[in-house]
Structures are given as C-alpha cells and as structure tokens.
Amino acid sequence: MKFRVLSALACASAFCFAASAAQADVTFIGYQTAPNAGETLVTDFEGGPTLGDVTFLLPGYTLSGDGLLFTGSVYGVSAAPATSATTKDTTQYLTLQRGDMVTLDTPLLKSISFYIGSLDRFNSFTFHLADGTTEVVTGAILAALPGMDANGSQTGFTSNGRLTFTFDSSIDGIDFASGGNSLEIGDIAAVSAVPEPAAWAMMILGFGGVGGLVRKRRVWLAPA
Ligand SMILES: [Ca+2]
Ligand SMILES: [Ca+2]
User: Which three-class secondary structure string do you get for 9-65?
Assistant: First the structure.
C-alpha cells in the first residue's frame, strides 16, 4: 500500500523545528533497480572512463566532480549495490570515496530518483532549489524514516534500493557527497518540472501500479 504521511516520526528529529525549512517527499523501495513509472532515465553510468564522458547522459544534464565509475566490489573501497539479498548490480555505477563530491546539474525537475547501494549515515545529498537555496538530506536523516537504514549494509533491503525525492518546488541540481567510504549510486532518473501530457498519463498509471513495498515520508530538509 502506498501512503503519504506528514511524518510524526520526522517530527521526532530536530529537523521538524526548522520552521522555514523546505520539504521533500521521500520514497524508498528496496531492491527496485528500474526507474519509477513516469520517470526518464538520466544516466546509467556506463562508459567512461571519466565522469565527463559516460556513454549516456540525458541532454540538458552535466556531471562533474570527483567520483569514480566502478564495477564490482573491492573491500573497503566500494561495494556494488545489492539488487536482492543474494545478487549485486553487475553493471557500472558511480562511487564516491571519503571527501568526494559529484554535482549533477539538471533542467528544472519536479523529482529525481537514483539507486543507492549500502547507504551510510555519512552519505549526503544537497539539492539546489530553483530559488537559489540549497537543502541537505543526509543518510542519518534518511535512517530515521520507516523502512530505511543507513548502516552500510551491502545486502540489506532497507539500505539498497531506489530513493526518490519529490519537491513542492523545482530543483536544478544535486550534489552527491560522502564523508567516508563510500557512496554508491546506480541509475539516475527524473521527472521534469514541466511534464508533457504523455508523461502525466504515465505518472497517473504509475500511481495505480505501485505495490506494497513503498515507504513514503515527508522529511524536513536541513538548510545547507
Ligand atoms: Ca549501470
Ligand atoms: Ca556505501
């Protein structure tokens, strides 16, 4: 069952008291590798070898920063995102080591989603809102949401899956960063802030097709 809650649980955190803070709806679906219904794939991180020349990056988007394109797992360096309790992403993904930051500049977006592997508390996502402000969601914030953990588990259903952020206003970029090893990101997908009619139809269909694994909460974002 899909649901939307102005979360009492989020209010248990300090972020609830930032009266002017922006808000984002957060959806997490463990092990869901595919983009959500109605989304368009932004990049799958194939190709390279450097961030600037991945084979496919949707027009209008720019990737820059310190991340590595990686396949497989190396202990203490990077772990391929889990796609089930016993399987891993066998394709190329983005990994950020301690201190790394990668920026994805985007057209105006209503929502963005990406596959996250072994979420850690020290992973962070800084959203650039169209009004020029920035808002930060850390792994520690996400760990407080039902159905999610940020314990770095390389197999867990609650720390490997598709993470979706939907905004009341538009964003035009996101910074991925990590205070430790590592932040692992698979396919990124997005919904434009100005969808085509066909996209609306797909989204409406998508709303009816989501199964019982959705955990959706509204988080209060911490100003950067
Ligand atoms: Ca890939
Ligand atoms: Ca990790």
Answer: HHHCCHHHHCCCCCEEEEEEEECCCCCCCCCEEEECCCECCCHHHECCECCCCEEEE
Cα(96) to centroid(ligand 2), Å: 9
> Tokens 């794939």 appear where?
41
Q: What are 7-65's pLDDT values in tens digits?
A: 223 333 333 333 334 678 999 999 999 999 999 999 999 998 999 899 999 999 999 99
Q: Where are the domains of the chain?
A: 8-223
Taking alpha carbons only, the member of 209, 166, 191, 208 closest to residue 40 is 191
pLDDT of 201 reads: 72
Q: Per the structure block, which two tokens stand in for 79? A: 């772990």
Identify the CATH class of 8-223: mainly beta
Q: pLDDT digits over 100-126, tens only?
A: 999 999 999 999 999 999 999 999 999
Helix, strand, or coil (residue 209): helix
> Cα(75) to centroid of ligand 2, in Å?
11
The structure's pTM equals 0.80
The end-to-end CA distance of the chain, in Å, is 33
User: What's the CA-to-centroid distance between 121 and ligand 2, angstroms?
Assistant: 9
